[in-house]
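Sensor-like histidine kinase SenX3: structure tokens wanted.
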Amino acid sequence: MRSLRSRLLASHLAVALTGTLVAVVIGGALTSTLVGRQLGMMRGAMGGGQAQAAQDAVRSVLPVALAWGAVAAAAVAAALALLLSRRIVAPLTAIQEASHRIARGDYRQEVPRPHDAELAAVAADLEELAERLARSEETRARLIDEVAHEMRTPLTTIRGTMEALADQVIEPSPEAYERVAAEASRLERLAQDLSTLSRADEHAVELRTAPEDLAAIARDAATHLEPQFDHAGVRLEVDAGSPVPVVVDRDRITQILLNLLGNALTHTPAGGSVTVAVGAARGMATVRVVDTGAGLTADELDRVFDRFYRGAAGRGAAGRGIGLTIARSLARAHGGDVTASSPGPGAGAAFVLSLPTGPDPLRGQDPAREA
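Answer:
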């Protein structure tokens, strides 16, 4: 396969040689005609023999002069073509070398920026791609490390308990078996959460959507966790009286709200409160989960949705740290989002689930049933 440089050089030479050939042909024809005409006008003054001799001399010298001119023009054209082809190909070669290094996994590098706007745009896009690949690689490595860490604790507990039972260090008892079963369930939940998160990231979550009332979903989620709030001494208030129609996968939205409420409970001390408020405005339905807990710093707000990020220790700090990540991913799969805000440490935090509004789930039902 011919290189781009050789093709550019050949094209420049072809254009230059064609131009030189045309100039030689036209120059020779015009020069011969014009010289002959001029000598014809001078025949009377010079005499016929002298004029003819001059014309013959011009005609004999002219081809040689044009040939040497053509050779000189071709040489200059070749030099310029080589220079221009190198100038054009050099930045492309630099970009190609950078792309090869990126393909080998060397993402941390600066791609040379050519002076040409089009090539500079290509270089900028390639550098941005390299940065994104670097971040993805860092996330992948961190994810593997953190998953291994998450698995290590329950596996250690299971192994220790089973070895103790085998060595008869402890007697077989329902408590020992329950401890093993609890750690196995923890591993199972971790696997399920990671699977959900992976599918959400790849936009492969299967959503079984239907018209629903977001207020009813919020009330059900709060009712499900109410015993845990009572046990922790945290007051749970729900403002979800008016129906808010949405088209969603009810189970997935329930999962989002359980994660948001569980996170609020984890970081709210006894005597505090968590408020759930459902509303709608400008085509978006919202569920606000506001707590009076530990609050978030600016750095925590930037990282709170990262995988396995736990932030400040709170009640149940042994959680897996991917609940909020899953909540945001599932919300975005519905065309919505989950956002966080906080006045600062010690001032509580607010997490807002936003979803596009939909048709009223009660519309079209039998009036007798609505009654």
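Residues 77 and 100 are 34 Å apart (CA to CA). Residues 4-103 form one domain.

Cheers.
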